[in-house]
Amino acid sequence: MSMNELKFGLAALISPPLFGATIIHDYSFLGNLSDSLGGPNLVSQGGAVNSNNYTFPSNLGLSLTSGFTGNADYSVVMHFSFTDLAGYRRILDFKNRTSDTGLYNLNSALNFFNITTGAGAPFVANALTTVVLTRNAATNEVTGYVNGVQQIQFIDSSNLAVFDQAGNIAYFFEDDGAVGNEASAGLVDRIQI
């Protein structure tokens, strides 16, 4: 089994929200930032593309333009690790880096600021973790999983987990400018949408 097949199998195994859904973007970081399904490439904000992952210093993750369509249903699967878990560490930004609202690691727990924080501490520094975030456009329900276990759920009536359509840009592992020091260095070896 290739490394790519192993990564996909792991993501499928621990991300039940993808079953029955169509994967529209698949980034496996095999020496590049391209979508294996032909969609838009990820853009490095200052990290390094390696043979089977992308490593990034604090606050220099990745961006994706035109990867999401309006207020549609989505699931995002991310297989990554952070070196620093103290305080807030941005995982996913929805509002073109103009808002503190978004998905974080908060002291080893999954957090959607400033709505909800999951129980326990499923994140471990320098250990690869799978995070899945889903949003149902019909019900506005947002659910977050860490390693296959549901950690957060809320009704997103304010569209906080809808990607800003003015720029249609998602930022991974890169924080906004409102409050400093809310990012961590780390690595990612798979992102699927």
Blueprint (SSEs and pairs):
Elements: H1 3-14, E1 26-27, E2 43-44, E3 48-49, E4 54-56, E5 62-65, E6 74-82, E7 88-93, E8 102-106, E9 109-113, E10 116-117, E11 129-136, E12 141-146, E13 149-155, E14 169-172, E15 186-192
Helix content: under 10%
- Provide the gyration radius in Å: 15 Å
Overall spatial form: globular
Strand content: 35-45%
Number of strands: 15
Q: Largest beta sheet, briefly?
A: 8 strands, antiparallel
First-residue to last-residue Cα separation: 23 Å
Describe the structure.
By secondary structure, the protein is mainly beta. It has one domain: Jelly Rolls (Sandwich). Strands 1, 3, 4, 6, 11, 12, 13 and 15 form an eight-stranded antiparallel beta sheet that branches. Strands 2-5-14-7-8-9-10 form a seven-stranded antiparallel beta sheet, with no helix packed on it. A hairpin with a 2-residue loop joins strand 12 and strand 13. The longest helix is centred in the first third of the chain and has 12 residues. The two termini are 23 Å apart. The N terminus is likely disordered.
